[in-house]
């Protein structure tokens, strides 16, 4: 049986203190090509919906501070040109909706130059297209939120074929509980745009639509 390769590591942005510890300097390192190759191979071999690929992508990104340029580079390798444009549009819309709350948060309201955070900041566009500016001027928390929405937009892309409403997804009598939850999670990610309510919907649907054997054990 083929075993997945080990999880690669990635650290695009590294923070180093100056002598005396008075100032922290951010240094950007592009994604290693080996990391991108491993992620693309996992995506190709196991599919976007596979637990292995999803876990690999999330663990890789969660372990690092990444900038918009890194995210665009990575997802341009995982998607074809049309899919990439759709992903960028979905990511932009999610960030546009998130921006008002970011402007109310003291940790993300302004960039590192004291200017109000903008959608261009979060997307790495216009004045912020240069990776070095993204690295030095965008607050870490804002980068983390931009990353989360990038991943959400990726997994929320509508798959090919018929889309079954999540509330109609029932666990088969011989289907494993894990497989059922995976199918339901995927459908909710695609159909429910509000990330904050997804977990609650998942719990409700799992209990309502599990088969009788699993429901009695929940």
From TrEMBL:
It comes from Hirundo rustica rustica. Keywords: Lipoprotein, Myristate. InterPro entries: Gag_p24_C, Primate_lentivir_Gag_pol-like, Retrov_capsid_C, Retrov_capsid_N. The keyword Lipoprotein applies. Residues 168-218 form the Retroviral nucleocapsid Gag protein p24 C-terminal domain. The keyword Lipoprotein applies. PANTHER family: ENDOGENOUS RETROVIRUS GROUP K MEMBER 24 GAG POLYPROTEIN-RELATED. GO terms for biological process: viral process. It comes from the Eukaryota. This is Retroviral nucleocapsid Gag protein p24 C-terminal domain-containing protein. Gene3D superfamilies: 1.10.1200.30, Human Immunodeficiency Virus Type 1 Capsid Protein (1.10.375.10).
